[in-house]
Here is the input.
Amino acid sequence: MRRREFLTIPAAALGGTLMYTLAREPIRVQAQDGSVTIPLKFFSAAEAKVVAAACARIFPSDSTGPGANEAGVVIYIDRQLAGPYGRDKYRYTKGPVVNSDPEHGYQGKETPRDIYRTGIASLAGFAELAPDQQDEKLRQMERSMFFQLLRTHTVEGMFCDPMHGGNAGLIGWQLIGFPGPRMSYREEIDKYHGMPFRPKPVSLQQVVGHPVHGWEEEKDL
Here is the structure.
């Protein structure tokens, strides 16, 4: 068992409240100061730094709103790879392993963990490159299984329920105006005739009123 490693990031770069001006221009309100230290379950600190930098190029923060770093996408990916998904617990992995049609999905032998380990190794020094160099490096590998997984996981981490580790402060849902898994709109039906309805997002835990856990927290029996 390897020693637990931690990712330390500026608190101002994680989560926050997304607000909009009258001109519908997004601004992020962030009252936190200092840094946040997050225990990693799968990545080493160096690996997490590379993945975070790559995710930030796939879904960058810009004038339209926050990106992967603000949403804590690297934490989402770390949690997924540490759980049953990362070790392919629920995918049939017995041989023979053969090339198949794209419609059949991924048919390879490597687990998501294996794919990430290989992909990260090919991105040595990535976090220190200039943004245009990072983009070129990612373009060179955009047909690889690693990049396809990384892109998919970046989007998932931006817009998942926070119980899975991403979408910090519900910032991804604020960005797109998704209200969360609300069970009913009965009380709002008669309040917004002819007006836009943009409720503050709520997580599943807020809806049900008690702690919830994602499948990545599943323990082997």
